[in-house]
Design goal:
Elements (H helix, E strand, L loop, with lengths): L6 H15 L9 H5 L6 E8 L5 H21 L4 E8 L3 E9 L2 H10 L13 H9 L22 E8 L12 H16 L2 E7 L7 H15 L4 E2 L7 H9 L32 E4 L17 E9 L8 E11 L15 E10 L2 E9 L8 E8 L13 H7 L3 E4 L1 E7 L4 E8 L6 E11 L3 E6 L1 H10 L3 E3 L1 E3 L4 E4 L3 E9 L4 E10 L3 E11 L2 E13 L2
Parallel strand pairs: 1-2, 1-4, 4-5, 5-6, 14-24
Antiparallel strand pairs: 2-3, 7-8, 8-11, 9-10, 9-12, 12-13, 15-22, 16-21, 16-23, 17-20, 17-22, 18-21, 19-20, 23-24
Length: about 525
């Protein structure tokens, strides 16, 4: 749930968390402490230059680390993860992102972190960011271990970078490639909803004109805060506290239904027929029922609405779009995308009102029909509920996600036209699924569903229950076009099976049929089939 809806519970959790690790707030309140807001879950990675010239900044950080960590624990309500990485011309990971690890991070900074060595400027700050933002493994890199902590989709995510040096990669030389790499890692962070908030310590003022725009770009690209301390490093800890207090919330949403106002969890019904997603032949707007042209480049148009009920202000982020074959029970995985295939993304700014993202979909495969998934990823608007394998549940819970399964099928009277539906199991356990057909606009004609041998055997093993169907072939069933279903089909976790649909219209007109997969009475996805029939 959003921070505003769980304030009381989190205050109690925060008190317990602070007590457990024995952190104490400052005795006298200061502006940085006052600025700390209720942030909800927080993931914070510190990326620190620990070369010899950083002695003053590190000394200042040591004096303030207890307050910094205490702020995060409190502001997150005890729902936090820390990471800690240092760099010279190599990268050293001391703490991967992990829940509840405040004591370990504080202990390292207080008792072990020290400035020393470095072999001269520049340093590998760009590659240290690459490690943290992109979860880089150590293989083939001057890096001690893998950075394999998980950035959580429902957390506000920060990288705090502290350095006095130009980025130099791993070759100890600053050049155009390092500037380009630094910009790329900023773009990567934007695409993952991670704020980079840099602290520049100007120990060598001659480099300031080069370093400042690079570090400012980290902040402006990702929505972070850029801070410059004194040459002695005084104010480093206060700068970090101020950066981590920046928990302003925006709320961009996509509708699951026309009546959807962005409330989480969505109290309405179907979540797989979003009115805010459609495919058009080009950048110009098109009708809602327009279908992709196989082999061509079309554009996925996604409508973003601002503000929703949980935040205000202009938002920045990345809109990402994915596809699968049409069906239900589609599995999501944050690392691999699960059953969903990435189409493309667009970074954009969303002011108040409606903004339409237009993402090219090149070389559309086929023939076939596809489900489309849209995800808004923003550092100021994380998912409210952590995403799990169940796409339908993720969509219902989070107004940052929208799902569109709609197919237009054109044919002639008495001429069979075919389509497909895929049943899947995204529950993570053995489950029985129901396949239910209903008509929104009366169908004059027949609808036949061919399960194929494997699904037929599964259905029989599950008890062979049905309503409104009759068997018309070895594996095929004719469904009553108004309402019918096959019930109790057992599926194992992660399985997907495709059934073939055949529509044979008996009169010209437009028919709209929904085929939906239910698991224990819960909608796990469906497809709206719009059958447009001409005369013979």
């Amino acid at each position: 749930m959003h921070p505003s809806r769980r304030r009381g519970a989190l205050l109690a959790v925060a008190a317990l968390a602070v007590s457990a690790v024995q952190f104490t707030s400052p005795a006298v309140a200061d502006p940085a402490a006052a600025a700390v807001s209720r942030c909800g879950p927080l993931d914070v990675a510190f990326v620190l230059d620990d070369t010899g010239s950083m002695g003053g900044a590190i000394a200042n950080l040591k004096t303030g680390i207890n307050s910094i960590v205490n702020d995060v624990v409190t502001a997150s309500g005890g729902d936090y993860q820390f990471g800690l990485v240092t760099f010279k011309d190599n990268v050293t990971i001391h703490n991967n992102l992990a829940p509840g690890n405040a004591a370990a991070v504080t202990n390292y900074v207080t008792n072990t972190l020290a400035a020393g060595g470095g072999g001269g400027e520049p340093e590998a700050s760009d590659e240290a960011l690459n490690t943290v933002v992109n979860n880089r493994a150590a293989a083939g890199r001057p890096q001690n271990v893998d950075f394999n902590g998980t950035w959580r989709s429902n957390a506000m995510k920060f990288v705090v970078l502290v350095t006095d040096a130009r980025p130099g990669g791993f070759d100890d030389a600053h050049g155009a490639v390092d500037v380009a790499n630094a910009a790329q890692w900023a773009n990567d962070a934007l695409g993952k909803g991670i704020k980079i908030s840099p602290v520049y310590v100007p120990t060598s003022p001659a480099f300031t004109p080069v370093i400042t725009p690079i570090m400012q770009n980290y902040a402006t690209t990702t929505g972070g805060v850029f801070t410059q301390t004194t040459a002695t490093g005084a104010g480093t800890a206060d700068a970090i506290r101020k950066q981590l207090s920046d928990c302003r919330q925006t709320d961009v949403f996509m509708r699951d239904q026309v009546s959807d106002t962005g409330v989480e969890t969505n109290p309405n019904g179907t979540v797989w027929n979003s009115p805010d997603i459609k495919v058009c032949p080009g950048l110009a707007d098109c009708g809602a029922g327009t279908q992709p042209v196989v082999g061509a480049t079309n554009y996925v148009h996604v409508r973003l609405n601002n503000p929703g009920p949980y935040g205000v202000g202009t938002a920045s982020g990345v809109l990402k779009v994915y596809r699968t074959p049409a069906g239900g029970g589609t599995t999501w995985n944050n690392a691999t995308n699960g059953d969903w295939v990435f189409i493309g993304q667009q970074a954009l700014t969303v002011p108040a009102g409606v903004t339409v993202a237009k993402i090219p979909w090149a070389n559309i495969p086929g023939p076939g029909h596809f489900c489309l998934l849209a995800r808004w990823v923003s550092a100021t608007d994380p998912m409210t509920f952590a995403e799990g394998p169940n796409t339908a549940l993720n969509t219902k819970n989070n107004n940052n996600i929208a799902w569109k399964n709609f197919q237009t099928i054109r044919g002639r009277v008495l001429e069979p036209v075919r389509s497909w539906f895929t049943l899947g199991n995204a529950t993570g356990r053995d489950a029985k699924t129901d396949l239910v057909l209903t008509a929104e606009k009366p169908v004059r004609g027949t609808v036949v569903v061919d399960l194929g041998r494997e699904l037929l055997e599964r259905w029989r093993a599950g008890g062979g229950q049905s309503a409104g169907v009759k068997q018309v072939g070895e594996t095929a069933f004719q469904f009553d076009p108004q309402r019918a279903g096959l019930f109790g089909i057992p599926l194992k976790p992660g399985e997907r099976h495709t059934a073939e649909l055949t529509f044979t219209p008996e009169a010209p007109g437009e028919y709209l049929t929904n085929l939906v997969q239910f698991v224990e009475g819960e909608d796990h996805g469906g497809v709206a089939y719009q059958v447009l029939t001409d005369r013979e």
